[in-house]
Amino acid sequence: MLDAPSNRPALPPEISRRRTFAIISHPDAGKTTLTEKFLLYGGAIQMAGQVRAKGEARRTRSDFMKMEQDRGISVSASAMSFDYREFRFNLVDTPGHSDFSEDTYRTLTAVDAAVMVIDGAKGVESQTRKLFEVCRLRDLPILTFCNKMDRESRDTFEIIDEIQEMLAIHVTPASWPIGVGREFLGCYDMLRNRLELMDRADRNKVAESIKIEGLDDPKLAKHVPQDLREKLIEEVEMAKELLPALDPQAVLEGHMTPIWFGSAINSFGVKELMDGIATYGPEPQIQAAEPRQIAPEEPTVAGFVFKVQANMDPKHRDRVAFVRLASGHFQRGMKLTHVRSKKPITVSSPVLFLAADRELAEEAWAGDIIGIPNHGQLRIGDTLTEGEALKVTGIPSFAPELLKNCRAGDPMKAKHLDKALMQFAEEGAAKVFKPMVGSGFIVGVVGALQFEVLASRIELEYGLPVRFEPSQFTSARWVHGEKTAVESFVQKNKQHMATDNDGDVVYMTRLQWDIDRVVRDHPELTLSATKEMQ
Ligand code: G4P
């Protein structure tokens, strides 16, 4: 077995065995199928098909809402933990639809690496690219899985070139496909000098591995017909000459991605990828925070909320804050300090997400994701510690790109609507603005589909039919500056002003021209399209 490279002093074994990552992909590339196989090999489910019931397209255990099931999209991110070999994998699910990029962005703040799944016939698609850019902002290590090799796919060099060119990252082949489409036999494992052959008869069977001594080993001829063998030898020689060799440090720094080829549905190439995550994926990393960063090996517990999910179980109206542990060894019943309010919180029923089920988490370590049920005190961006006033940084909130007025179908129920909207705002599912002039609320989202999700959830969870109507505004910007300067600006522009759900001042308009004018005429103020979560 290969030793995991490390870019830091040795971590305690319980921490260093953790791999916390997300899968990024364009819809349909095979993320759900791959997740299912991960869970299968992680022993978290017993048979394939448990994650997505057969015949019922697109339903994973991580899809909480009916809306998601109807739409076939995963709207909310959730976490799944499972063991693989001596490693603990924490897989954080990201919503695949582009309308949920903000949620995805925040999810990616909670992981140490990403697995990028691409479809071998389609290459790098728009959503893959967007998500990749987000990973790049944080220099997240990326491992690539080129899926659907059992179908007609592009030439291997072409796929690698496309990734290198479109994403500006070095690509090193960890495996090399033998044949494509109907002729696809399996892969040559370039890192371990092994032949992996796919079993087409049984989709759930893990590939047969054959140890060979280089590509001139006579065993190759036994398993690979001559034409494919010649092609393989020629291509692998070319690849070794033209493409960079695997540099584990460059992978950890996010400059190089190893690529595995496979077919998730045929269980092919998945174990190799999992071995790759174990070996080349990073251990829990240092977390940026103020006034100092947090190292995973610190003995005291620190963590931060990157997602809040309300009403996961409509019967119980609970709210679960997903917390990424940045350091220490957490034990159930611990008293932690909620840094924003300076209040203690006793975490008596933390939840670990083990594939299908939630389980009480008796303990967790830096790198793990735990769910903390609460009544609304935990918000996205909040830090929990054992007392020190640390604030995790880098969890952004984006200005919404679409704004609409939200009205209750029944005006008598407007009060309940306020409550529902506030809750979704705290959950991070939308921005809610209260205009300083006039009544009602303006709801802002990043993608249009979010309005439908909100309307459906408000109706489902609060029994309130709502309408979203066009708003007179199309843009919102947070206003920062000296208190008196902001107040004077607010007084003069009341028609344009609102407060967000945290009480922060927002300037709203229809015209980019207005924004430019404010920027030009008010050098004492800054208008920003993002704000750090409080
Ligand atoms: P996603 O979560 O990224 O959106 O993708 P998902 O896993 O749902 O896969 C999308 C489609 O691609 C599914 O087919 C799935 O069966 C298929 N698929 C996944 N991996 C492979 C593979 O290695 N080879 C081939 N040939 N197909 C693959 P579907 O017909 O849309 O759904 P279903 O009827 O299979 O449920």
TrEMBL record:
It is found in: Cytoplasm. Keywords: Cytoplasm, GTP-binding, Nucleotide-binding, Protein biosynthesis. The keyword Protein biosynthesis applies. The keyword Protein biosynthesis applies. SUPFAM superfamilies: EF-G C-terminal domain-like, P-loop containing nucleoside triphosphate hydrolases, Translation proteins. InterPro entries: EF-G-like_DII (IPR053905), EFG_III/V (IPR035647), G_TR_CS (IPR031157), P-loop_NTPase (IPR027417), PrfC (IPR004548), RF3_C (IPR032090), RF3_dom_3_sf (IPR038467), RF3_GTP-bd (IPR041732). Residues 16-285 form the Tr-type G domain. GTP binds at residues 25-32, 93-97, 147-150. Pfam families: EF-G_D2 (PF22042), GTP_EFTU (PF00009), RF3_C (PF16658). Its main location: cytoplasm. Gene3D superfamilies: P-loop containing nucleotide triphosphate hydrolases, Peptide chain release factor 3, domain III, Translation factors. Belongs to the TRAFAC class translation factor GTPase superfamily. Classic translation factor GTPase family. PrfC subfamily. Increases the formation of ribosomal termination complexes and stimulates activities of RF-1 and RF-2. It binds guanine nucleotides and has strong preference for UGA stop codons. It may interact directly with the ribosome. The stimulation of RF-1 and RF-2 is significantly reduced by GTP and GDP, but not by GMP. This is Peptide chain release factor 3. It comes from Rhodovulum viride.
